[in-house]
Amino acid sequence: MSSITFPINIALDEGLPGTGKPDGPPPFNVPDMLEAPLQSVTSAILFIVYASLIITSNMVMLVAYVIEKRLRTYNNSFIINLILTDLTVGFSLIVLFVSNCHPGVFWCKIFLGINDGVLSVSVITIVVICVDRYQATYQPIKHFTSRSKTKAYLLNAIPWVVAFIFWLPFAFFGFDASTPTDGDRLIRILLLSLPVMMTILPLFIITVLYARILYKIRNSLGAQHLKDKFNMKSSGCEEEPNTGTSSNGGSNLAPHHQSQDDSKIAMKSTDVQQTGQNKKSKRNREYRDSDASARKATRSLSFIIISFLVSWMPHVIFVIVTSSDQSILLERKLPDVMLAFISTIRFTNSFLNPVSYAVAQPLFRGTVAGMICNPKQYC
């Protein structure tokens, strides 16, 4: 009797429903809850919860960005790129979990390349944010005048282009770690260097740029403190100018005309002084707004880098060690639990990033709180 195979490993025989064996391995990796061991079921539940947290947290931040117009700033354009990237990571985790994907299958190669590419987009976006903050710190005028939506779109497109230029060829022409090394060694070295370049090189750039940003900010704060102290001392030593007499000790005008002229001069002087004060206060207000925005952006960058280090350092160390000694993988010297932890911990970055936005920016935090406590205000 012929057998009809369904996608989730359910086989029906034409004579006896529910009997018969599948013709091949199931295309989905969903465990059978009646027969699977408790450890497998627990792992499946934890994995689904893990992916759901990533998707939910980034969806909340995406909705907050859409409904609150004040969040649509130049600096937050990089944040929205990270949100979309991390949201894609969450959905790819679900697909990776339910699919029985083997590296030797053509479509699986493409999917794994896309999955690694999306992860790299998140990392390279952090590099782009660091470069942008570096220019804002060391060349503030040039950075302020060059800000535009077009520039933001171009900078946000760079991580996607670079990541997929690296990872899609690696997915198509990748190799098994157990293949012999007597082939083209140049190609093999190149393929080995790709994961290293996409993990260690961004980490090095982020570390150097962020250290220089902090150094510049610390020096600027110290210089501003000294300037404020100098201005306070100077204002205390100012003296009122001696007016009302001419250089020869007298006046050539009559008292009546002199008083009128003095009042006109005083009015003009007051108008000029008031205009100067208004311009100065406007410049100070713009400077304070720009300075506050820069502080928020730098604070957001600090939390993003912390979450990046926590999530990616185990994987970076693993890449360095296994690149220098491939026998660790070939001879399975590491337990499966540790390998699973190292492979999974990097996805935590996609959950910690939205938490970083809420912690670093009060407007993000307030918008999310309003969405939860009083959603009618946004309807």
TrEMBL record:
<keyword id="KW-1133">Transmembrane helix</keyword>
<feature type="transmembrane region" description="Helical">
    <location>
        <begin position="152"/>
        <end position="175"/>
    </location>
</feature>
<feature type="region of interest" description="Disordered">
    <location>
        <begin position="234"/>
        <end position="291"/>
    </location>
</feature>
<keyword id="KW-1015">Disulfide bond</keyword>
<keyword id="KW-0812">Transmembrane</keyword>
<keyword id="KW-0807">Transducer</keyword>
<dbReference type="GO" id="GO:0005886">
    <property type="term" value="C:plasma membrane"/>
</dbReference>
<dbReference type="InterPro" id="IPR000276">
    <property type="entry name" value="GPCR_Rhodpsn"/>
</dbReference>
<feature type="transmembrane region" description="Helical">
    <location>
        <begin position="187"/>
        <end position="211"/>
    </location>
</feature>
<dbReference type="GO" id="GO:0001591">
    <property type="term" value="F:dopamine neurotransmitter receptor activity, coupled via Gi/Go"/>
</dbReference>
<dbReference type="InterPro" id="IPR017452">
    <property type="entry name" value="GPCR_Rhodpsn_7TM"/>
</dbReference>
<dbReference type="Pfam" id="PF00001">
    <property type="entry name" value="7tm_1"/>
</dbReference>
<keyword id="KW-0472">Membrane</keyword>
<keyword id="KW-0675">Receptor</keyword>
<feature type="domain" description="G-protein coupled receptors family 1 profile">
    <location>
        <begin position="57"/>
        <end position="357"/>
    </location>
</feature>
<protein>
    <recommendedName>
        <fullName>G-protein coupled receptors family 1 profile domain-containing protein</fullName>
    </recommendedName>
</protein>
<dbReference type="GO" id="GO:0004930">
    <property type="term" value="F:G protein-coupled receptor activity"/>
</dbReference>
<feature type="transmembrane region" description="Helical">
    <location>
        <begin position="110"/>
        <end position="131"/>
    </location>
</feature>
<keyword id="KW-1003">Cell membrane</keyword>
<keyword id="KW-0297">G-protein coupled receptor</keyword>
<feature type="transmembrane region" description="Helical">
    <location>
        <begin position="78"/>
        <end position="98"/>
    </location>
</feature>
<feature type="transmembrane region" description="Helical">
    <location>
        <begin position="301"/>
        <end position="321"/>
    </location>
</feature>
<feature type="transmembrane region" description="Helical">
    <location>
        <begin position="44"/>
        <end position="66"/>
    </location>
</feature>
<feature type="compositionally biased region" description="Polar residues">
    <location>
        <begin position="242"/>
        <end position="251"/>
    </location>
</feature>
<dbReference type="GO" id="GO:0045202">
    <property type="term" value="C:synapse"/>
</dbReference>
